Amino acid sequence: MKILKTIGQFLINLWPWSRERKFKKINKTLQQAVVEQEKERVEFLQEFRFYLRKYLRKDASGKYIPIKSKNKAEIYETVMAVHGARLRELNIKFSKNLRISL
């Protein structure tokens, strides 16, 4: 009977260590996933900013070709139609004032 109690106490004392080891393994996996997601976000934001510059024609500076101006609502709707799913997937918020927030 005494032996069973000591074995039981040993297993009870061993239990938190196994849980801690499990948590360390999970944290390592999560850290790698966060780094990968952050890389995806940075790449997408570069691509997204390039798309906005192209769509808004920021590079158009001609003497004879007028720069077309578009209202914010039109820009917002077009951007959300093209990139809305990807923005939601990466948890990036794009407001109607054309501001990006992470």
Overview of this structure, please?
There is one protein chain. The termini are far apart. A hairpin with a 5-residue loop joins strand 1 and strand 2 (100-101). The model has no long low-confidence stretch (mean pLDDT 79). It is built from two helices and two strands, in the order H-H-E-E. A two-stranded antiparallel sheet has the order 1-2. The chain has one domain (2-101). By secondary structure, the chain is mainly alpha-helical.
If strands are numbered along the chain, what order do they take across the biggest sheet?
Answer: 1-2
Number of strands: 2
Q: Would you tell me the structural class of the helices and strands?
A: mainly alpha
Number of helices: 2
Proportion of residues in helical segments: over 70%
Computed over alpha carbons, the radius of gyration is 26 Å
Spans of at least 5 consecutive residues with low confidence:
none
Question: Shape, please?
Answer: rod-shaped
Sheet with the most strands? 2 strands, antiparallel
Total individual domains: 1
Oligomer: single chain
Q: What's the rounded overall pLDDT mean?
A: 79
Sequence of secondary-structure elements? HHEE
β content, as a range?
under 5%
What is the first-to-last residue Cα distance?
60 Å
